[in-house]
Amino acid sequence: MAIIDFEKTNYPDDAAWHLEIGSNLEAATMGSLLLLVNERKRVVAGALENAAKPRTQDQIALAMVYVDVARTMVEHALAHPEFQDSATFPDESLGATLQALFARLFPSTTISEIRALADRSPSRLASDIQSAINNLEGIV
Fold first, then answer.
1. What is d(CA 70, CA 105) in angstroms, rounded to the nearest whole number?
2. What are the pLDDT digits (tens) for 46-60?
3. In the prediction, which pLDDT does 70 show?
4. How many angstroms from the chain centroid is the CA of residue 60?
5. C-alpha neighbours within 13 Å on the C-beta side of residue 113
6. Alpha-carbon distance 128 to 125, whole Å?
7. Phi, psi (deg, nearest 5) at residue 77
8. What are the extents of the domains in the chain?
9. Which of 13, 43, 45, 50 is 20 to 30 A from 60 (CA-CA)?
10. From the DSSP assignment, how many helices (H) and strands (E) are in the chain?
């Protein structure tokens, strides 16, 4: 994660965050994911700075970031034709991390079924991800 000024990047100045994800599913996860946070968006930047001891407003902002990052990762995985139920990826690779995320979010659903849902109803998939994470409960 890096907190930066989006005005000095090619990202929209008013975006609060951007998740960069590598395209090589066999590459190490640590080198494939980078969450960029816009320092000008103090609510989100502050929430991430306070993540070890978050206030209520920080918890809400963190919940929003978490759901959006998960949704972005799911959509990214589904965009790769080689990301299949039968695929095998090296330990600690981006592909393995994405498979673990799918297993956590959709424990009784195949990747093929999730891909079909995404094609049929992307907004329903977004709601299913939000429901699976369910991280707003107990904040307030």
1. 9
2. 999 999 999 999 999
3. 96
4. 16
5. 8
6. 5
7. -60, -45
8. 2-133
9. 13
10. 5, 3
Give me the amino acid identity at 4.
I
Looking at residue 136, its pLDDT comes to 66
Tell me the average confidence (pLDDT) per consecutive run of 10 residues in the chain, 140 residues long. Answer: 95 96 97 97 96 93 94 98 96 98 96 97 95 74
114-117: long-range contacts at Cβ-Cβ below 8 A with a sequence spacing of 24 or more? 114/74, 114/78, 115/78
- What pLDDT is stored for residue 76 in this prediction? 98
Q: Is the full-model pTM beyond 0.85?
A: yes
Selection from 82, 73, 81, 131 nearest residue 106 by Cα:
131
pLDDT value of position 140: 56
Could you give the residue ranges of the DSSP H alpha helices within the chain? 42-49, 56-78, 94-105, 111-120, 122-133
Distance between CA 12 and CA 108 in Å, rounded?
37
**How many Cβ atoms from other residues are within 10 Å of residue 113's Cβ?**
12
Token duo for residue 113: 């079924």
Please give the Cα distance from 107 to 99 (Å, whole number). 11
